[in-house]
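User: Here's a structure from my thesis project, written as structure tokens. My advisor, Dr. K., wants to see whether a designed sequence matches the one we expressed. Can you design one independently, without my sequence as a hint?
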């Protein structure tokens, strides 16, 4: 969701990439709620850092605790910032598909949007 928002809202100032510790595919519930907000994730795909070799990152933002805890060391002057969001799949794994589950995804989607709207200024302040 963060990459989708960054590309949609800040594509003129941020070159966004997303990657995880493991490939899980694009979550269909995330794709659904992002589409509701006008962001198409159809061309997005699950990546790891190995898939992004050769990309020189100015800043890496981890958005979940697991990624923050297992984030590799980046060479050079790459700034690493953690901005934690709750993990919708973990929060909703006990729920059947439907509105209750999607409501959690929508809430987190909107929290991520507010963070992305604050970029890149928020990263200049972050330590």
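Assistant: Designed independently from the structure alone:
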């Amino acid at each position: 969701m963060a990459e989708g928002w960054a590309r949609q809202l800040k594509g003129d100032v941020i070159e966004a990439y997303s990657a995880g510790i493991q490939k899980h595919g694009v979550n269909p519930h995330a794709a659904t709620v992002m589409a509701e907000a006008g962001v198409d994730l159809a061309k997005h795909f699950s990546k790891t850092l190995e898939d992004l070799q050769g990309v020189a990152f100015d800043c890496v933002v981890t958005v979940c605790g697991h990624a923050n805890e297992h984030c590799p060391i980046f060479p050079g002057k790459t700034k690493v910032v953690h901005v934690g969001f709750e993990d919708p799949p973990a929060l909703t794994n006990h729920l059947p598909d439907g509105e209750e589950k999607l409501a959690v995804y929508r809430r987190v989607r909107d929290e991520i949007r507010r963070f992305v709207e604050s970029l890149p200024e928020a990263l200049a302040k972050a330590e």
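When you compare it with your expressed construct, this may help: The chain has one domain: 2-119.
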